[in-house]
Design brief:
single chain; 344 residues; alpha+beta; Ubiquitin Conjugating Enzyme; 3 domains; five-stranded antiparallel beta sheet; two-stranded antiparallel ribbon; 7 strands
Length: 344
């Protein structure tokens, strides 16, 4: 087993980076031995997976950050860091960096995640506060210089734009420029109204394209939910009918099962009654009964209870019946013995 000192070896670190380039395409080196970017596509959308190698790598697992941020059970939606991928949860110094990254990329390629719409933009709720600050800031500048004109001066317009650029990141600036009205085009009265009139301020926010887009998406989701609810209600009657039919089928099956058990018991009883061994036992009992009847006729004749003609007739009949039954019993016994010797 490799020791911790061996894992800190620069050659092994380079080996792990080589596996990253072998198992994945479009690997770009940002900082040598520390940061790499892997470009890939999923559902016709471009993604960048940033691989950060700490100073303790490979003894410490790498940090994977996906951009843009997505909704996925492996990804932290706030930071975009891939935290719960199996390769990271089970990471050890023996793991291959290339395979860990490859599994993550394949997961996103096979099951394209939904992109968080605010991942590269600022939400409308976050825009309200900077907008209020900007308005107040511009008004303070106007009051400071004692301007009383109906429009904002060029210097104040520049102050507003500079403040916007300082308060927002590059992504936020692009959103502000594209989705927010330019405050420099507003008159002083309009700026004061925005600052003092909440209703006018809310209307101003609602007219922004990003808010309108969110409202359209919300309306679309509501319509979709209503459609699904109507479909479920329409299928309710059919489901109730299927449930009733299933209950009837279960009762029928139960009745048939009980009837089958009764017939099976009758079958077993008949099988026992007509079993060869049982028939032989019945023949033996019948032979014994016929012999007993013969002895009774002899005893009646000797006691003078019947005449010779009646004795001969009854005795001959009983003796014949006994002989026939005994012959059948002996023949059946021979057949059963033959079957037993044959292995049946």
């Amino acid at each position: 087993m490799l020791t911790r000192a061996q894992f800190n070896n620069l050659d092994y670190r380079r080996h792990q980076i080589d596996t990253l380039k072998v198992f994945n395409d479009n690997v770009v080196e940002v900082v040598e031995l520390e940061e790499y970017c892997v470009h890939f596509e999923s559902a016709a959308r471009n993604f960048i997976l940033t691989v950060l190698l700490t100073a303790n790598f490979p003894n410490e697992r790498p940090k994977l950050i996906l951009s843009p941020r997505v909704r996925h059970c492996w990804v932290n939606p706030v930071t975009g860091e891939v935290e719960k991928a199996p390769g990271l949860l089970n990471y050890s110094p023996h793991s291959d960096l290339g395979r860990v990254v490859q599994v993550v990329i394949r997961e996103f390629e096979r099951f394209p995640p939904s992109v968080i719409k605010n991942s590269n933009t600022v939400s409308s709720s976050n825009l309200i506060l900077p907008l209020s600050i900007n308005i107040s800031h511009s008004l303070d500048n106007i009051n400071t210089v004692g301007a009383a004109n109906s429009t904002v001066s060029a210097m104040q317009q520049q102050n507003i734009n500079n403040y916007l650029s300082q308060q927002t990141s590059p992504h936020e600036s692009s959103l502000t420029n594209s989705n927010l009205p330019n405050l420099s085009t507003l008159s002083l009265d309009e700026l004061k109204k925005l600052d003092n009139d909440p209703e006018f301020f809310n209307d101003f926010i609602q007219e922004m394209s990003v808010v309108q887009q969110l409202n359209e998406e919300l309306d679309s989701m509501i319509n979709q939910l209503e459609y699904i609810a109507r479909e479920n209600l329409n299928k309710e009657g059919h489901l109730v009918e299927l449930k009733r039919k299933l209950s009837d089928d279960v009762n029928t099956l139960k009745n048939l099962g009980e009837k089958c058990d009764q017939l099976n018991k009758k079958y077993l009883k008949k099988s026992d009654d007509y079993a060869p061994q049982h028939i032989r036992e019945l023949l033996q009992i019948a032979v014994s009964t016929a012999d007993t009847e013969c002895e009774r006729h002899v005893e009646q004749f000797l006691n003078g209870k019947i005449d010779v003609q009646t004795f001969l007739q009854n005795y001959t009949h009983s003796k014949k019946l006994s002989s026939e039954r005994k012959a059948k019993e002996e023949r059946l016994g021979q057949q059963l013995q033959a079957l037993e010797r044959a292995g049946f």
